[in-house]
Amino acid sequence: MATSARQGPYFCGIDAAMDVVTGKWKSLILWELQEHGTRRFAELRRGLPGVSEKMLVQHLREMEEDGLVNRRVYPVVPPKVEYSLTEHGVSLNAALESLAVWGQERIQRIGADKITVEAA
Amino acid sequence: MATSARQGPYFCGIDAAMDVVTGKWKSLILWELQEHGTRRFAELRRGLPGVSEKMLVQHLREMEEDGLVNRRVYPVVPPKVEYSLTEHGVSLNAALESLAVWGQERIQRIGADKITVEAA
DNA sequence: GGGGGTGCTCACCTTGGGGTGAGTACCGCA
DNA sequence: TGCGGTACTCACCCCAAGGTGAGCACCCCC
C-alpha cells in the first residue's frame, strides 16, 4: 500500500534509498523544503507546477511516515499546516547532492529543457 | 516512449538523474556492472533474482540509449553479449554512493530485511 | 535425440501510480 | 452575496510499467 512505510526487503542501500525517494514529486518536495526551510501546503503546491493536490498530500504523508518531513498543524480557523525536513530528510537531501550535480551535467550534455519556476 | 532516450524538461538536476535511474532494476544493474566490471546477459539475470528477461532487456536498451552502458556483441554461435559501464555510467554510480550509504543507514534504522544474493 | 543454455522478441494481461474533478467548513474581502 | 483561499478527502478513470509465457535458432552434453 502506498500509505504505509516502505520496508523492503532490499538488495542494497541504493534501493532502500530509492524506495523512499521514488514518486513523481518526492525529490522536488525535498528540494523545496531544503531551499525554503518551512513551507505551507499551498506554497509547496505553487512551487511544484503541475502537481495535483492529491499527489502532494499523498507524497507528504508517505514522507512523514518515512521520517523525512515534519508536519505541524496549527488549529486555526483558516487551516494552517507547515512542513519541514527532519534530520533524516536533511541528510537524504545531502546524499542527493552529488546526484543533482550529475544530473546537471546530463542536462548540459543532452541539452534538455529546464523548467524555471518563477518565485511567488 | 520507453524506448527513446529520456530528455526532460526537468525542474533540476535531481530529476534529470532520477529519470535515468528510475525503473525497477536500473540501479541494481548499475551496481552489478560496477561490482563485476563486465557481465553477460545471463550473468546479470542471475545476479538480479526476480527480474524478468523482458525487463532486463528493456532496461539495458534504455541505459544504452542514455549512454550509461556499453553493449558488445560477439558474433559467435551460442550468442554472447557483454555489458559494461561507460564513463557516464561510472560517474553516475559514484554519484549514487552517498545515496547508498544513506540507504544502508535507513535499513539499519527500520530493521528491514536484506536480500542476499549467493555468488554464482 | 532431447534437454538445457544462449540472448533475445512478441503478445497478452494485471497492477497501481498518478490525474481529474467534486465536495467540505470556515473565513476575509469586495 | 458570492468568490477565492486554506488543507484537505473521496470517487473515478486511464495509461504505462512491469510480469507471464511462448517461441526461435543454434549449440553442447548426456
Q: How does the SSE layout of this entry go?
A:
2 copies of one chain form a homodimer.
Chain A: H1 13-21, H2 26-36, E1 38-40, H3 41-47, H4 53-65, E2 69-74, E3 80-85, H5 87-110
Antiparallel strand pairs in A: 1-3, 2-3
Chain B binds a DNA duplex (30 and 30 nucleotides) through residues 2, 23-24, 40-42, 45, 52-55, 57-58, 73, 76-81.
Structure at a glance:
The structure is a homodimer of 120-residue chains. The first copy, chain A, has helices at 13-21, 26-36, 41-47, 53-65, 87-110; strands spanning 38-40, 69-74, 80-85.
Please summarize the sheet with the most strands of chain A. 3 strands, antiparallel
Shape of chain A: globular
Strand numbers in spatial order across the main sheet of chain A = 1-3-2
Output the helix-strand order of chain A.
HHEHHEEH
Output the radius of gyration of chain A: 15 Å
Helix content of chain A: 40-55%
CA distance, first residue to last residue of chain A: 35 Å
Query: What portion of residues of chain A belong to β-strands?
Result: 5-15%
Indicate the multimeric state.
homodimer
- Total number of beta strands of chain A: 3
What does this structure look like?
2 copies of one chain form a homodimer. With 120 residues, chain A is an alpha+beta fold. Chain A is built from 5 helices and 3 strands; from the N terminus they run ααβααββα. In chain A, a hairpin with a 5-residue loop joins strand 2 (69-74) and strand 3. Chain A is globular and about 50 Å long. The N and C termini of chain A lie far apart (35 Å). The interface between A and B is large, with 45 and 46 residues. The structure holds a DNA duplex (30 and 30 nucleotides). Chains A, B: Keywords: DNA-binding, Transcription, Transcription regulation. Chains A, B: One of its GO terms (molecular function) is DNA binding. Chains A, B: This is Transcriptional regulator. Chains A, B: Pfam families: HxlR (PF01638). Chains A, B: Residues 12-111 form the HTH hxlR-type domain.
